[in-house]
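Re: folding output
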Amino acid sequence: MKKYILSLSVLALFYTKTNACAWSDPDYEYFNLFTQSIIKDKSYLPFLLSYSTRFYDQYKQGMIPDENIESWKKFFNNQLSYSETDYLVHKISLNDLNDLKKGVPNNPLLKKLGVGFYQKYKEGIDYLIEAKYLEPYMRINFVENENSFYYSGSGNDKNATNLDYYKTIAALTSLYNAAKNPEIKQRYGYQIVRFNHYTRNYDAATQAFKKYVQPVKLKGTPYFMALDQLAGAQRGLEMNSDANWNFFQVFMNSKSRKESAFVSMKLSDTASFNNIMKRAGTNEEKNMAYFLLGYEDFNNPIPIMEKMFEIDPNSEILKVMAVRSINELERSYLPIYYYSDNNNTVVQKNTSDKTSSETTIVKKEEKLSIWQKIVRFFKNLFGGSKKSDKSKDENKADQSDDELLENPNRIPVFSKNNYWYDEKTKDYLDDLEKFTAKTKEKSDDEYWQIADAYLKFLKKDYKESTEILEDIKTSNPEYLEQIKRMKVLNDIVSQPKIDAEYEDHLMKDYAEYFVEKEIKKDSTNTDDYDYYGSVPSTADFLKDVLANRYFLQGEDGKSFLMNNKLSDLQYNPNSSLVKSVEDFYRKPNKTQFEQQIIAKNMDNVGNIEAFFANIYGDRAMRTADFEKAKSYYQKAQNFAGIPREDYEKYNPSTGKYEKLVYTGTNYDGFNNIPDYVFGHNVWESFGSPDDQSMENENYTAFPFIKLKMNKLQLADALIQLKKIGNGKDEKSAKANQLIGNLLYNTSILGYYRQIFVMDIDNSNGGKYDFWRTELENPYQYYYKNFLDKSFIEPDNFDLAINYYKKALNLSTNKEEKARILFQMASAEQGKYYQYEAKNQANIDYSDPKWSEKTDAHQKEMDNIKNQKYRTYFALLKTQYANTETAKNLIGSCSYFGYFMK
């Protein structure tokens, strides 16, 4: 396929391992549909795939057993549980053990075990007493040198050098010689090696291992604990190859020490894993070495997995490699967000740098811009744009042609081609699928069948995936849970249309994935704040699938409410979406799914009827349909106000951010609109009080314009002004001018731009952007990221200009005409900004002629602005330059002053 290079602006939107935002956590950015931790050997959990941390740490505490505790549990003949053994070894105090030795146990656990417990396990208890005495000192001392660049601590921390070296060695040697139990003897040997290591007597540590550990001829937990210390001493002696090999043996043979052994290997030898591979003799060692090589260089692990398969297809670590591969594929295929830029280009947010090469972007050679190519690319993936509503018969015809919903199986949550590959790159998913299919035939672990079914799911072969799942026979509870989840996924995702019957099926069989469970938080925990939100889950994924289905079916209201609250509409109140949400609200006989899952997101906005009516009235005002606006506002008089409970605004007079408080005198979304809304700018400053930024016109002839008005009164005033404006006198001219002022002042450029877009003041950002799309609705797949962008239908500046034209033609006052022309010129500026936003240069920053092309584009835009969008400035300059109004404007409006030169 062709390889296309994205510009920097687009690449910045692709979410990879390197994140633009320091607070972003990639392990919270995918759905976790295939549970990595279902591997049976939990000691490998740290080596599952994670982008947030060096090692995977999302498993529950205690899932990785401590082999040292298991060894002690066995030593005590399983008389204690695992947790009791852990308490005895790690947590019980030295005094408690000494009391037991004296025959007067005070600790509850030791009391329960009885006095005879010490006599029965005397050597073990005596060892624990010695070990607990030594433990606070068992750390290496920090040695300052010229290369030290980090804080060395307070200097009061205990370390091994605080003990008398010779007395300690003598005591441990005596205890070693006296011990009869081989395991306990070897544990004393471990302490001797460790003490020498931590006192930096590295050579003595290596000799101690040979003298006190090896002769015992046991290779259980104490042996590998001692080997770990030996390897540390060898690293201190710069015997890096030997150190690395011994850390490798610890990695292979321990459960809870794999992570630390891996880090130690990395620190010991820069070519660590390659050198281990050279020394590997047994198949087990070779298999483990291959694992470490594959883990370290995970770009394409399949060749390494093939080698591991040849050695042992039942290898547990082979499953670890496979589950990491599956997880990386899942992150690429199933992102949590799809973004559209302002050119309608869709960009998928994902967390992987794995790519695929399946589908070409353009089927035949065409001269397309890079943006057009990208749009084509994503349309190929996601099934094109949304269809309009059709009759039932037409829908049936669509179904028969497999065109219903523009091929609904191609939904956005199943993108295969997130990146661009060259022609030589293999399809990673196909390769992994082939490997998994081969391995499931050789291995007796059901894991491989589950993995194969999941890869079929990613490839959208839901029928075969389900068939594989149905044939799996297992008693493993984690496997069973994964199988159950995948059956649900296959069922829902393969459904081309979500109708009432299917919604009933969802509630009957899968309610657990949609009915939210109440999570009780600890009110006493002051640190109980989730900075990232909940981790995306299977339920979240299924909601996205349904939101996409509803979107493609034209049920925008239901699609919106799958991911948003009703109150969210106030942030982007575009008309078509609001109407669809209202249609759902008024829908009779809602299904159980619609009532319990979708309608629950219709949160408290006060009076819902007034909420919708206010939005519709606002839109009618922006289109200058004042009569329609009045009819809506009559229904909106119970509007409860725009809820902004946590909103704070900077007050320049106090220098502080102040919480919004509705006092009954400030604008609340319906009430308390000042008469300045009919006035004009003194200067353009959105942050200044209105009595500084705005100036009133003469309202003497219009007593219905009140000092403060609600929206109903405002609409009524406009209707009266419109009627008066139909006359032929100066009053009619002023009426038209006031209407033009209001339309301009409430546009994107006006001081009161918040009034008809459901905002509380003019300071908020996103709503006041000039959009680069001509689409009625820029949301292309669902409304999940509704609050991440803003879209409201653009202003029609010609409406204001047309009223100004009437005023200009009727007015005989030259000063008034100058003011009107300036207002017309300001509105014309808005038309230019809209044109400019739709005609961006889009020049690749890597272009060697970027600066030259950018300057040329800007020059072209300046010419267009002066030729097409300076009409009323030109009239003002040529015919009214000597008016007092024009002279005052030159001083208060910099761009007008520049134009008049």
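--- second protein (sequence, then structure) ---
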Amino acid sequence: MAQAASSPAQGRLTDLVNPFIGTENEGNTYPGAAVPFGMVQFSPDTGHNTGYDYSENHIRGFSTVHISGVGCGLGGDLPVLPTTGDVTSTDYGKYAAEFSHDDETASPGYYKVGLKTGIDAELSATKRTGVQRYTFPATDKANVLINAGQSLHKTLHTKVEILDSRTVRTAITGSGFCQDTKAYTLYTVTKFDRPFTTSGTWKGDTVTAGSKTSEADAERNGAYLRFDTGKDRTVEATTAISYVDAKGAALNLRAEGGRSFDKVHRAATAAWEDRLGDVRAQGGSSTLRRTFYSSLYRSFLAPNVGSDVDGRYTGWDQKTHRAKGFTYYQNWSLWDTYRTQAQLLSLLAPSESRDMALSVIQIDKDSGWLPKWGYGTVETNIMTGDPVTPFLTNAYQQGLLKGHEEDAYRALKKNADGVPPADSAPVGREANKEYLADGFAPYIKDRAHVKPGDSDYDHGASATLEYALSDAMLGQMAKELGYKADAKRYAERAQNYRKIFDSSTGFFRARDAAGNFTGPADPAQSEGFHEGTSWQYQWLVPQDLSGMVELIGGTDAANKRLDSFFAYDQLVADPAKTAREVWVNGPYDYYNADKYNPQNEPDLIAPYTYLSTGQPWKTTDVVHAALTLFTDAPTGMTGNDDLGTMSAWNVLSSIGIFPVQPGTDTWGLSTPVFERVDLTLDRRYYPEGKLTVKAPGTSDTDRYIQSARADGAAYGKTYLTTEDLRGLRNLSFTVGGEPSQWGTGAGAAPPVLK
């Protein structure tokens, strides 16, 4: 079966990473080559809508752009495939090459497969280029097919140019992601290490030998390059990409190309080794370590560099801009990443996180509005609520916006208090007019979508909760910046979660445009919640859990409901079985359930609710059961990874430090799964430069915190702040086999935002 690539070097963290995790059962990851946050993700496509499916056995091509863990087809631009013989088919589905996982291997920054055609293909990457090496049998008809007209999304227009005997240039315009969205253009240039003997192009069903250019709309279009491999059987090529123009692709090629495949491979491995080396985990089984480091690896795959080496990038106004003083990033799955991955990156990659936050602010400057779900140079409007607010307030609270606080606040205030113009692409807080007037976003069934993407009106109940959460986080920022009136107003709006609480059912419930509760009264059958039910959204009030607890009848009632939600009695008896048979029903089975769904974002914070109800040991029970869903097999992801969201949940929960109030500086605590984790931190943001988390003897049985110490002093709270982390070198837990009273005292729970 496919495996992580082995190496003569021993003890490398990259040897623990298995890029095939999540490539089966809709984890939607990819096994190909990338460097941390790289623009290029060079990976095989088997026909699955997101690129690669482990259950498939034919490769259609190796394409340059992929997004880890999304739920809809996206990317897959410029699939390239080596073949032998005459070029007759123009459809990559027909010339797809069979392969076996026995002849396939991958590691961070490297992928190799032996095709049944007798050709070996190897891939590696730099930040803005994909490098390929093909080893052919001896033949005078060794081909490399460059397919511009087919991808994982809808291709609208393509152009192919053979510039000389080594170089091919393309421009690919496409759109689509769950629904049709505004088009973007990707420019590529591919340079081979030796001249090809002959070449040609194709358009539609016609192959034209000797042709140098081909241009097409929504039809097949590409070029083939032929080599004589009678003596030299290898062909290497470097493909550079740009979202700006052909000049940008050429500049990227000049800056990052020109090296042999082996040198690029070594550099990519070194980049990953350096990145993973900031987290050193000790203890745990080999399977646990492989799973952990594979999740850490996936957490660093996105967002992605969007600017060329000269700093130019295409803004959301479709104009060319130049990033000054920061690297411009793109690809924003904010509804997912604001809960886990943004915080992990702020801890382990604060310099890049700063540039990511500045990029989001820049989107507002360029286009007039903040993003919701951005791909490349366009807004897709996928998902709902207001995820950009906790994303940016997190950056602010982690100290990443020094000198840019006012720019961020102005953009966030505009977003929180208004709706984008009708002639702009973003939907923003689409239901904000009603929310500001009535305190809730109405659920309007079958309402026509005004703009492509998802609509908050289709998910009014969950949108209300997300708006209120964002108001709370923005209120904290306003308070700290001295905007007292704004802070008061946002704090009051943060209580709007109460407006959709139905006291007759004891659960949140959607309300229609007239203000009436609507949809089934049964919270497991509820409507108006995005990818979930009222049961699963009931704890999405991290700004005021004590207020939510009061609404449902107090602490005892809340704990009983939490126990039912997590099937706690069954969980304690058999954690892994409960996780797999009681909680999980399928990667896209979001509805008609009254149990925890660890495969999807609305429930990611829920296990930590026990920190606020006086039973913190139950947080550890639930978290450790959920961690059993992550394995080192292709099926080892809990649903879509969503640009590292689920992977970051695994990493943070395994370390025992988790962002329980996304958009603030609050980190909840639970029992680590490793006996020791050493984190190397950036001294510009964390002056101590290091944090060690210890839990000697931690195991499946001895998982309960008996006591905690922070730099040797007794510590009884169930949370830390970022300021605490900045001055802390050692956090240690004493663990045992039975729950204790640790974390149950007055003031131990994470604070309510005021």
